[in-house]
Amino acid sequence: MKVLVLNGPNLNRLGSREPLIYGSTTHADLAEMCVAEGKELGFEVEVRQTNHEGEMVGWLHEAADASIPVVLNGAAWTHYSIALRDACSQLTAPLVEVHISNIHQREEFRHHSVISAVANGVIAGLGVEGYLLALRWLALKK
Ligand code: DQA
């Protein structure tokens, strides 16, 4: 069974981007961890990252059409993109929203997510391990 792990803007900079907040794991490391965890759980995990909102919306449509579960870190789009939210609303398999940092401990503008109301659940503040926990939950539900 396929699972898409979708990462939004600036997450390609993991490892060098504000390491005190996001840690030292690079996006390539993160992708490797997710693929390995997925293998253990019987998933074929594909990790993608984009800085282009339309590309992300297209990937969500692809997941909706093929009923693929999604682990989504919408990054900054989380807080204001109704286009992303509307694409998430169309998903036909579970959606887990993940944030590396605890968005509720940070600036006020990060406290609200437009995605959370249409996600099955949200993991925030557990570092990159949050993605692995999301995959484990999806495995419990399959
Ligand atoms: C983030 C939190 C967002 O507020 C921020 O814009 C990101 C990353 C996280 O993983 O903690 O880019 O989604």
UniProtKB/TrEMBL annotation:
One of its GO terms (molecular function) is 3-dehydroquinate dehydratase activity. The keyword Lipid biosynthesis does not apply. CDD domains: DHQase_II. Coiled coil: none annotated. It is an enzyme of class 4 (lyase). Pfam families: DHquinase_II (PF01220). The active site is at Y22 (proton acceptor), H99 (proton donor). It catalyses: 3-dehydroquinate = 3-dehydroshikimate + H2O. InterPro entries: DHquinase_II, DHquinase_II_CS, DHquinase_II_sf. The record marks R17 as: Transition state stabilizer. PROSITE patterns: DEHYDROQUINASE_II. Substrate binds at N73, H79, D86, I100, S101, R110. Pathway: Metabolic intermediate biosynthesis; chorismate biosynthesis; chorismate from D-erythrose 4-phosphate and phosphoenolpyruvate: step 3/7. Its EC number is 4.2.1.10. Keywords: Amino-acid biosynthesis, Aromatic amino acid biosynthesis, Lyase. It comes from the Bacteria. Belongs to the type-II 3-dehydroquinase family. Catalyzes a trans-dehydration via an enolate intermediate. Homododecamer. HAMAP family: AroQ. This is 3-dehydroquinate dehydratase. The gene is aroQ.
